[in-house]
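Researcher: Here's the sequence for the chain we discussed earlier.
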Amino acid sequence: MSTTETRPPLPPFTRDSAILKVRLAEDGWNTRDAKKVSMAYTLDTKWRNRAEFAINRAEAEAFLTRKWIKELDYRLIKEIWAFTDNRIAVRYAYEWHDDSDNWFRSYGNENWEFAEDGLMAHRFACVNDLPIKESERKFRWPLGRRPDDHPGLTELGL
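Model: Thanks. This is the structure I predict for it:
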């Protein structure tokens, strides 16, 4: 179930529109604004993230709120892996630290399925956390959107 809103680019995706969709998702998540990010999902979105499941937009927003309370100074890079008419697969990495200043780089893959209005209906994520030293961080832009000239995952060798 979706709403009357749309979230371009809309399926069916071309390579360029799928790449743009991935970058817009990355930009949204880098705001760390759970309410804003949740608006990119259908009202009845279905998620699996690690061992957590969400079955609607409100549960997705609650998940994101919990996530960004725990994962401090969060910075994310997403990269397209594959796409079809209304599905996109991405790989991603993000860096964050906990409240004891332990740093991590989290690596993962996501499979997305979109409704006709461009809202994400399904999101399946697998994530692995690697403890890193603060000196090993690679994502050092100011909090918020990754600058256009900052290397992506491939360029960083990730």
